[in-house]
Design goal:
Elements lengths: L2 H4 L22 E3 L18 H6 L1 E7 L5 H12 L4 E3 L8 E8 L6 H5 L3 E9 L5 H9 L3 E5 L12 E14 L2 E8 L5 H12 L3 E11 L2 E2 L7 H14 L3 H6 L1 E2 L9 E4 L1 H8 L4 E2 L3 E5 L7 E5 L5 E7 L3 H6 L4 E8 L9 H4 L17
Parallel strand pairs: 4-9, 12-15
Antiparallel strand pairs: 1-14, 2-4, 2-11, 3-4, 5-8, 5-9, 6-7, 7-8, 9-10, 12-14, 13-17, 15-16, 16-17
Helix pairs in contact: 3-7
């Protein structure tokens, strides 16, 4: 009989875990070479027109108990009168907390959030009174890689898989209830985690309440807003023309990419990447540490605009040393082609050559 069958949900070789999610990793910036950016093309995310802001917006939404995640997104679309929106990481109707909602072209970055780590505050009910020490010991065994099969009501294939619990802290125990703070890999089912802890205790257990407190770069901080606050901000803008509150509750798409390693590129490399070309070494200006081959990275302009999502073709040390060749392979373009001119149009013209006008400033 395999280990998963002998110990459902538990890691056969528990190990201590960091109390941070992968998205909390702190990186340093390495400047490869310096360059200037042309103010005639593109603009910083904070200076986009409101139309562009809504097309590239991200909302740190506080979901209430009751509606489905799909219903919440439908309400956001109705409130803002936008055609396209999507959420990252479904929450069950009774579950509350952070539900990142992306607007318009910002939905192109959805996959990076779906794979980001999550944090929950979970109230578990143990079916029979147990000593506090025993509950703490068993919960600790669930830190690290665990085996988990999705519950019957889930929409994914019901097969055994491995998920990582980055940390599981029991905050409080009162009679047969345990309040837990759990940092976990995307795709971890908290209801199933409580069930498996109950099996390990030999008493049975179930999840009573759940709230999501982190989703990748989104946190329970000053950016968290309710549907009512979103509605009020929109109506205030319609009545007064003041965009301040609407811009406070809707953030640039770049905020949804803070958990990814950042590559900053020169102006003359932007349009090529916008057309799906891989990023070559001459176009790379700066990068962040702790990048490995195959890692997801985000490509930015000098003005801080998100250009594309890519896969690292080299490690950060290899990128720094490379003078030629491909450093990252473009996978999903965020910026519209034509926002920056083609490289040959940025090159210095010889006397007598034709000057071709280019437009691309979307501010």
């Amino acid at each position: 009989m395999s280990t998963p069958e002998r110990a459902p949900g538990r890691n056969s070789d528990p190990k201590s875990c960091s109390k941070n999610l992968p998205s909390d990793k702190v990186r340093s910036v390495i400047v490869k070479r310096k360059a200037k950016t042309d103010p005639n093309y593109g603009c910083s995310p904070e200076k986009r027109s409101l139309e562009m802001h809504l097309r590239l917006g991200a909302i740190n939404l506080d979901k209430t108990s009751g509606p489905t995640s799909h219903e919440v997104v439908a309400w956001v679309k109705n409130i803002l009168h936008v055609d396209k929106a999507g959420h990252s990481g479904t929450l069950d109707p009774k579950v509350t907390g952070i539900l990142p909602v992306l607007l318009g072209d910002a939905t192109r970055v959805m996959d990076t959030l779906l794979l980001a780590g999550k944090e929950y505050i979970c109230l578990m009910h143990v079916h029979k009174a147990m000593p506090r020490k025993r509950i703490l010991e068993v919960c600790k065994e669930f830190e690290g890689p665990i085996y988990q099969k999705p519950p019957l009501k889930s929409s994914v294939v019901k097969q055994l898989r491995t998920r990582t619990i980055y940390y599981l802290d029991v905050l409080e125990i009162e009679e047969q209830h345990a309040l837990m703070q759990v940092g976990c890999e995307a795709g971890t089912y908290m209801r199933k985690l409580c069930y498996d802890i109950g099996l390990a205790l030999g008493t049975g257990a179930n999840m009573e309440e759940l709230r999501r407190t982190k989703a990748g770069p989104f946190r329970e901080d000053g950016t968290l807003v309710t549907l009512h606050q979103l509605k009020d901000a929109y109506e205030n803008w319609k009545e007064t023309g003041d965009e301040k509150e609407l811009r406070r509750v809707i953030h640039p798409v770049e905020t949804a990419l803070r958990h990814l390693p950042r590559l900053v590129i020169s102006d003359n490399a932007v349009d090529a990447v916008c057309h799906g070309a891989p990023l070559a070494a001459p176009g790379l200006l700066s990068l962040e540490t702790d990048i490995k081959v195959g890692d997801d990275v985000a490509i930015f302009t000098l003005k801080g605009e998100a250009v594309a999502l890519a896969k690292a073709a080299l490690s950060n040390s290899e990128m720094l040393a490379a003078e030629r060749g491909i450093v990252a392979k473009t996978e999903r373009v965020i910026m519209e082609p034509g926002t920056y001119p083609r490289a040959w149009k940025l090159a210095e013209k010889k006397p007598g050559s034709m000057q071709v006008p280019v437009s691309g400033n979307n501010c």
